[in-house]
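ok so I'm stuck.
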Amino acid sequence: MLPIQLHQIEQSILYQRNNNEQIQELLKRLLYQAYRFHTLAPLRRDIDRPEFLPLEWYLPREYTEMNITDRVDIQSTLRFGIQVDVQTCSSPVPSVDRTADWKVVYRKRSHDKWTLKVHRHDETNETHAQVTAIIYDYERRVLQVDRGETFIFTTSNQYELEIVLNNPYEAKELYLLIKPVIS
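replied:
not stuck anymore, here's the structure
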């Protein structure tokens, strides 16, 4: 969650006027962990301390409003085989800042098969990330979600995601998410 969202929880009626002590303590502990994570996660390479290991359980949600890196109209033939530069958050901590540079290549192999090649080209260190493709129909309903495994990106490799459309004639848009994760 973004810091403003965490603050909104602290100011909420649920948090401030809850008469149940167990719920109050649980919310307090979870907010503490969220703030601590938000503060320390960007520094994880500089921190070599055992108490920071609980971050291994953390896998960020699919923040579509922040992580969407690119969108393709599946019915259009203009983007097939095109390389696109996109930007995302560079940290697994949700942020509106987009500082990570990626290259994405879209290839349509047949009427129902696509290949996406994703390459991180601005970072000298390795980056752990997960690539997800979301397919929408004409009414903006999700038809299909293809999620790749967590991959270690370096400047010398790329990730390839093969997509077979379940219903190619109803598929309208492909949204690409690139989500940095804790290593």
